[in-house]
Amino acid sequence: MTKEVEQTHILIVDDDPIILKVVSGFLEKKGYGLLRAKNAEEALDLLSEHEVDLIILDHYMEPGMTGLEMLKALRQDDDPVAVIMLTGADDRQVIIDSMQAGAQDFILKNSGVEFLLKLDQSVIRALHVGDLERKIAKSHQALQDQAQFLQTIIDAVPTPIYYKGTDQKILGCNKAMADFIEQPIYEIVGQKIDGLYPAEISEKLQQHDATLMDEGGELLTELAVQRSDGEHHILSHKARYRNAEGESGIVGAVVDITERKLYENELRLAQTVFETTSEAIIVTDLQNGIQAVNPSFTRVTGYSEEEVIGKDPGFLSSGRQDKEFYHNMWMQLCEKGRWQGEIWNRRKNGDLYAEWLSISAVHDETGKITQYVAVFSDITKRKKAEELIRHQANFDALTNLPNRNLFLDRLSRSMVRAKRNGTQVALMFLDLDRFKSVNDTLGHNIGDALLQETAQRLLGCVRETDTVSRLGGDEFTVIIPDIKHTYDIEKVSMKVLHELSQTFSIEGHDIFLSASVGITVYPDDGVELEALMRNADTAMYQAKEAGRNSFRFFTPEMNAKAHEQMILERDLRQAIEHKEFCVHYQPVIEVTTGQVTSCEALVRWNHPQKGLTAPGYFISAAEETGLIDEIGTQVLEEVCKQIHQWKKVPEMKAVRVAVNLSPHQLRNENLVQDLQTMMTKHGVEAGQLSLEITETLVMQDPQGTAVLLDEIRKLGIKIYLDDFGTGYSSLNYLKRFSFDVLKVDRSFIMDVHENEGDAALVEAIIVMAHKLGIKVVAEGVETIEQQKFIIEQKCDLIQGFYYSKPLSAEDMYDYCRSTTA
Ligand SMILES: Nc1nc2c(ncn2[C@@H]2O[C@H](COP(=O)(O)O[C@H]3[C@@H](O)[C@H](n4cnc5c(=O)[nH]c(N)nc54)O[C@@H]3COP(=O)(O)O)[C@@H](O)[C@H]2O)c(=O)[nH]1
Question: Which GO terms describe its molecular function (predicted)?
C-alpha cells in the first residue's frame, strides 16, 4: 500500500451490518482509513467532521434517507467527493439514477467474492476519477472565481462594456451595458449585439466588426440608438482581442453622449444667439474684467472686442449716473443676482446713448458666482421718440412753454407741496390786451412771433422754481410756489406788466402791448384746482375791465361778479324774447352846414329792474354768448322801421342812420339777404342806411370782408370804419375797401388839446382820408375846444356830447327840428 493510499479515507454507509463489516474488513486490509455509518444521517454527521476521499454508499437504506437521496444532497452542496453506489440488484434504473446524480461508479453487492474484487477495482477507479474531477472542479472553481472577479471589476465600471466571440455573439457584458440595453445580462449573452440596432445601423456595425477582426486596431463610431426613454447618442469604442487559443473577438465600450450632445447643441445655440442677437452682450469675471463681447456690442458702442477685453465696463460710463446709482445697482446684484434698468453710456465716438440693461450673475453648481452677463439694447431712438411725444403732450409747440396739461400737473403738485409745507401758491392768469388786433392786422406770423417773445419776457420775470405756461391763444399763466408775502406777488406782477409794455420790435413792426393779470392765492382763495383757475380768470377780467395793463387779486366780490354775468346772460335771453331793446340816435353834424345829416343808432336795454341800460353793460356779454346776432337783427328791424317813419317827416327824411355791426353779424351767411329783405319790407332806400364796422373786424378776414362789403354796398348801404386808430389796419386796406366814412376814435379826440401827438395824428388821419376820398367823423367831441380843433382840421362830420347825447327817436326828431329851424 502506498503512503498516498494510506492517506485515503473512505466512508462506508450501509444499514446492513454484514456488508458494513465485510467491506470495512476488506478495505482495511488494503490500508485505507475507514469511517462507518449505518445510515445517511450518521454519514452526513461524519462528513461534517472528517475529510473523506470516497464514500461507498448503499443505495437502499432504511429508515431515513436512501443512498441516492444522500448523494443528491451532497451534489447539491457542490461536494465533489467520489461516490461508489452499492446496489442490491442489477437494477438499470438505479444505476442510471446514481450516475446522473453524480456517482463515480456503482457495484452490485450481492456477487460474493467477485463483489470484493470488483469493489477493489471500483474503489481505485472511483478514487482516480474523483480526484481528477476534484482537480477539474478546483481549476473550474478557480476559473469561475477569476471570471467572477473580472465580472465584478467590469460591473464596477459605469461605462457599458461587452465582449464578443469570433461568431460575433456576445460572450459577456457588464451591468452598465445591461442597463443601457435595458435587458438582463443572461439575455444579452449569446445574442449578436447588432440585433439590438435597426437593420441599417446593424449592417454598418457588422462591416466595422469584420474589418476590425481582419485588420485589428480600434474603431470609434458615433450612433443614435432608440431606447424606451427616447433617442440616445452613443460613441461605440471597439477593439479586437485574441484569446489563449488565438481566436479573435471584439471588446467594446459604449459611451452615452446624449447629454454631451444636448449640451453641445445648447452651447452651439447659445453661441449663435450670442453672435447674432441684436442685443449687445458683455461677459465679465468676478473682478468685472470683460471676458467676451458680441458683435452687437461693437455695433452699439463702436468698440471692437480686442479693445475692451480685460477692461472694466465702467469705461463706457457717461457720467450721467452718480456713484449712488452704481452702488445701488451692485447692492441689488449681490442680493438678488440680477439688476435691470435704464442707463446712459457713451459710444467710442463720444455720443451719448441710452440702453436698457439687464445684468445677471452666473453661478456654478455650488451656487458660487463665477461671472456676470450684461445684456443691453440701444433705446436712444425710442427714448428720443418718447421724449418728443412727452414733450408734445406737455409743451406748447409755439412757445415751448408748459401747456395746459403740464400746467395743471404743476399747479396740483404745488398745491400739495404748499399744503405739506404750510406755504402759499400764487396763480396768475395773464391775457394780452389787444393781441387779437395785432394778430388780425399784422398777420399770424407776427402774432406767433409776438407770443414767443412774450413767453421769453415772462420767463425773464420769474424764478426757476416758478412755472410759466401758455394755455392757448394769448392766455398765459404763472405759478409762483412758496409765497410768503403778497408783496412778492405784486412785485412779479408789476415786473410782468412793465416787461410786456416795452416795445416789441418784430419784422420791422414796433408793437405796443399791455397785459391784464388776474391773481389768486392758494389756499386763501380756494383749495380746489378748478376753483383757483376760475378765480384767476375772474380776477383777470376784473383787471381788463379796470382799464387793462393792470393786475387784480381775486376777491369773493369778483366771484359775485362772475355770478352776475350768468344772471346777465339769462336776462339777455329773456330781453330778446320780450323785445326789451330799443334804439337811441346820436346826431352827427355836418361841419360845413351845421346841420344833422346823419345819426348813429345805439341800442338800449329797457331793463325791467335797472331801467334804460347802455350797451356797455351788456354788449360784450351778448358778443361772447352770440346773442348779439338776435339783438342786432332787432336793432336793424327797429332802425329800418324808424327810417320809414322819418321818410314822411321833412326835417328827417335826409338823415342817414348808421348801425353798429358786430363781428358775429358779419359772419352771418345770410346778412346781405336779410338786409335786403328788411330794406324792402320797410321801404328803406339807397343811402338811408349805413353800417359801422371796426378795424379789427375787417382785418380778421380782409379778403372775405372785401367781397361782403361790396355786396352790401350794392344795396345802397354806406360803410363806416369805426374806432379808427385803435387797431392795426394798414393804409393799403383803407384804399382797397373804399370805406365811405372813417370815424376817428374818441380816445384821440379827447386829448387833442393837451397831447400834440394826438392832435398831429387826428390831423394826419383827416388829410389822409381826404386824399383817399373818404369822409371823416370826429367821435366823442365834448368841448368847444375839441370842436374848434376839428373844424380847423377840416373834418367833415362831428359826433359828440358837445352837440348831443344819444336820443330817443322822438327827441332826435325834436333835436333835428330845432337845428333846422
Ligand atoms: N353791435 C352793436 N354794438 C352797439 C350797438 N349799439 C351800441 N353798440 C356798441 O356799444 C358801444 C357803446 O355805446 P354807447 O354806450 O351807446 O356809447 C356811444 C355813445 O354814447 C358814446 N359817445 C358819443 N359821443 C360821446 C362823447 O362825446 N363822450 C362820451 N363819453 N361818449 C360818447 O360813444 C358810443 C358810440 O361810439 P361808436 O360806436 O364808436 O361810434 C358802442 O361804441 C358800440 O360799439 C348796436 O346796436 N350793435
Answer: cyclic-guanylate-specific phosphodiesterase activity
